[in-house]
């Protein structure tokens, strides 16, 4: 967070406290902490084709830190300290992400967070492992909110890396719990972005379809360049021509929005099974054609049918009333809550001390709970599957981004149901 953004955030604390108290997420709110800020570097694409996703993450992290600061900040032996987000633009490129890491370290920031690229996350993990071994007096911690290539908590697992999103295999398991019951489904088209995450999604899709629905035929299986396709009409035409009843994709950002929009325009009437079809323009792009046809998986949806969840979501919308800013993720809120808890229990802002507490953290917010699995640093939490419908339909109180379309929860998996085995053999300091 820049100094001007931090000032605006500080001014927003009182309003945030009032909103939180009204929703039952907080009680008596002490004055904002005045100690030296604990700075968190957000290394994310803030320009380029996926800039909207980076800005959406920033809003989530700002809101999460405001909540911590509104209740007095992080309690430490030397006095309470606020959390502050510093922005570093990776431009959606791994090399730029590594430059952001070096800049953050030069500013003596000991906690970084990133998510909107598994390739960048892998590069950051390698760089941090080397830095922390070479310079133990300035060790750095990496909190991952969205990079979901399974390898990051398996072969590439690191003591310094903690993932708070469900990885691709976990998300696929949740989607497959619905696909497995779609007895009318006979053929499916697989399409994804050509990088580590997109490749992992399609690999797992093939494996889980073979295990759970061997009767379903894969009529298309392709990867496309990431963030470089402006016109998905040729891909949409192939999908329609294949006779596919459904598309399964891990696409996100504009690569998803443009894909579903093109499919609508060529008249594809099948189902989209998606990882991220519930936000960032996708519902508005597909419109009425998506009712009952676009299915998404997430850790949480605004229409989760509980009073706590509804109050949580309404509080976010009060903080960010512009419909275009409607992108809230529970996992990012839980991540900051987990960090605050770990710092307080460590009584220190040193990376190794925080990591030791993060390994065993358990958090709860607005009815959503999660725990960190210490063996591989993979967060375990509830997953939900939801289907797109018109706002006002049963189970769809809230729409997405002012589109008039929302998502009705049709399946929830407890953490134990979503949990997956791991192959992590973690080296510990």
TrEMBL record:
What Pfam families does the annotation carry?
Peripla_BP_6
Instruction: Tell me which family the UniProt entry assigns to this protein.
Output: Belongs to the leucine-binding protein family.
* Coiled-coil region(s): none
Q: What is the scientific name of the source organism?
A: Hydrogenophaga bisanensis
Q: In which domain of life is the source organism classified? A: Bacteria
Keyword annotations for this protein?
Signal
Q: Indicate what this protein is called per its UniProt record.
A: Branched-chain amino acid ABC transporter substrate-binding protein
Q: Which part of the chain is the Leucine-binding protein domain?
A: 37-392
Key word Ribonucleoprotein present in the record? no
